[in-house]
Amino acid sequence: MSGAELTELLNRAQHGDGRARDEAFDRIYSELKRIAAAELRRNPGATLNTTGLVHEAYAKLAANYGGQLTDRSHFFSLAARAMRQILVDQARRRIADKRGGGVAPTDLDGVNVAVDAKASEMLVIDQALDRLARRDARAAQVVEWHFFGGFTFDEIAAEMSLSERTVRSDWALARAILSRELEGFSV
């Protein structure tokens, strides 16, 4: 299926065509699972599994995105961002629970320490990535697709209609900026 055909299916699904929704989901499911697996590898404290993250992201997109999709890459960009937001929201809840949430704290010999550190790290990275997006949206998108979405540089280049060299350059710029922003971060 071509990118244009997938975009058409997704747009029809968005306007209430149940058959188009089912067909589109069947066609993109494996790609969404790959993105979700990459997200979860980077966020071991997440309470969702790959399938759960895919379904939550798809439901979030279906419920909250009302615009027209321009192409396949637009959809996968939205999907990667939705997954990132779901995991960031989970990290925020985990940190809020850690700070009390109305329940007396307990520690099972430090079992949750590493997971809590990952949740804090996720929030700091998310904030730094938001600042990067305000400075250089394309570089932030490269980070989101590569780091959060698990896309290779070659795949990103193809989806964004850029050369792989440009994508790698954006990645290097983003890493330098984020590294400087995250300098001194400790959990």
Automatic annotation (TrEMBL):
PANTHER family: RNA POLYMERASE ECF-TYPE SIGMA FACTO, SIMILAR TO RNA POLYMERASE SIGMA-E FACTOR. The keyword Transcription applies. Keywords: Sigma factor, Transcription, Transcription regulation. Residues 5-183 form the RNA polymerase sigma-70 ECF-like HTH domain. InterPro entries: HTH_Sigma70_ECF-like, RNA_pol_sigma-70-like, RNA_pol_sigma-70_dom, RNA_pol_sigma70_ECF-like, RNA_pol_sigma_r2, RNA_pol_sigma_r3/r4-like, WH-like_DNA-bd_sf. It comes from Tahibacter amnicola. This is ECF-type sigma factor. It comes from the Bacteria. Belongs to the sigma-70 factor family. ECF subfamily. Gene3D superfamilies: 1.10.1740.10, Winged helix-like DNA-binding domain superfamily/Winged helix DNA-binding domain. The keyword Nuclease does not apply.
